[in-house]
Fold this sequence. Notes:
Elements: H1 3-8, H2 27-78, E1 82-86, E2 95-99, E3 111-113, E4 121-126, E5 146-150, H3 157-161, E6 167-172, E7 181-185, E8 191-194
Antiparallel strand pairs: 1-2, 1-5, 2-3, 4-6, 6-7, 7-8
Amino acid sequence: MGAGAAGLLDYPAGGVMLTSHHAGMTIIELMTVLTVSSILLAFGAPAAGQWLRDVEVRSSAGALLAALQSARAEAVARNAPVRLRLVDAQGRPGWEVGCVQVTARCPATIRRQPVSAATDVRWGASPPANMPALTAAIAAGTGLPAGITFDALGAAAAVGSGTDISRVDVTHARDDSARRLVLLIAAQGMVRLCDPVAATSRPERCR
């Protein structure tokens, strides 16, 4: 090769051209990586599954809270009693909101969430008289079907008299260790979502 060609290749004439050698991964190295990855997955998968089940419970509880607040708002806006009904005896999430006294301006069904068979989240409910301690879970389907009626002022008087439910527990059917959340309905119509096992100093603790 001439000097000109050597210059173009950026190494001096008569010199030695250096080449780089990239070694591939050996079988032993590959097996080591796969073994470590398997161990990490084995430890991480249960935690990830627990987190997903907790998210399912929280999502369902949040959706029910929004439905209860919406039913109360409908009662005030329509100046008429509106009832939210939890419709499934097995405790699968599903509800309907409608007017107690049906008129042209206040239909029997305002909105609804069809019962979902695709989730393992479950609801259980209780009126005030039979309500267990907050440390004890209400089993799935307990007290259902049931409901809460809000009057034109947004109150839930039947909760106070004991005929309507005042508590709904949201649990996971496949995991007793999954987070349990509780919705508490007051006779004044306020609805609160709380965590019965949160630290006592935390505002989300059920009281």
